[in-house]
Automatic annotation (TrEMBL):
Main function: Part of the ABC transporter complex LsrABCD involved in autoinducer 2 (AI-2) import. Probably responsible for the translocation of the substrate across the membrane.
Organism of provenance: Lichenicoccus roseus
Record's subcellular location: Cell membrane
Topological category with respect to the lipid bilayer: Multi-pass membrane protein
GO molecular function: transmembrane transporter activity
Record key words, sorted: Cell inner membrane, Cell membrane, Membrane, Transmembrane, Transmembrane helix, Transport
Chain segments annotated as transmembrane: 12-33, 40-57, 63-83, 90-111, 131-154, 185-204, 216-233, 238-256, 268-288
Pfam families: BPD_transp_2
Domain of life of the native organism: Bacteria
GO terms under cellular component: plasma membrane
Signal peptide extent: none
Protein name as it appears in the record: Autoinducer 2 import system permease protein LsrD
Amino acid sequence: MLVPRFATAFNLSQAIAVVSEKALIVLPMALLMIVREIDLSVASILALTSCILGALLQAGWPLVAAIPVVLLAGAACGALNGWLVTRLGLASLLVTLGTMGLFRGLGYVLLGADSVNELPDALTNFGIDPLITSVLPQTILPFLLLAPVFAVVLHLTATGRRIYAVGGSPEVARYSGIDSNRLKLGLFVLSGVICALAGIVFTARLSNARANNAQGFELEIITMALLGGINVFGGRGALSGVIWAVILVALLRDVLGLEGVGGDAQGISIGLLLILSLLLSGVAQSRLRATRDRQRSPAVPAPP
């Protein structure tokens, strides 16, 4: 709060706008990590769907017709990831590492090194206009609408209990009658759709569509999920912690930027924060296990 220009409406609005797409994508990423999967292609899906949107608009498509096609393209990308993981039994880390290059390469096939900058006013206005107050940009609206839905589904529905069950013990979940592959496939498709929505938001916010959009986003999104308490081995985590982590990373980047710290140094700071949080979490869990073991072990009588 003592940093000059931090508490201004313009700065807070910019800080929120910059994190809009990452906040969206971290929602399905958290669910995937809870079921012991991961998606490294999220930023590439965002870039590809941004290119598809730009190419369609450049070809004269109306915005209302282009948006459903973009969302379907995102669903197809997620379905490909899910099919390779669930049907072929491949590791999601390796699958999405490959599709990360594939999807971004398709974006370059569509637009090459060029960008589409002539966009409809309805789209660009969404990217710059405020929502109710000057502090909240319209780009954060999809996250504000979807975050409660994800939280309710994860924490208050049978689907959420299945997600935790699959992540906690896949074998027990299978013997309980849960179709783990179907659940994971659905989560990958959902991730693709949300990435496509983030691609639309990103295109509107920057007023351009190009294949190199959102490079490096995937690592920061995973960092937000881990900082928010999502267990890297699955089965544990809550969206409330993830939302606080999104706020933390957004504030950290904003304050460092106001202090003149460059993007690379900001990445170092966030990486160190992640390592520190993982170390503290590991120490806390080790002490908790040691305490439980002492409580469960029978008391040994003192020798006479």
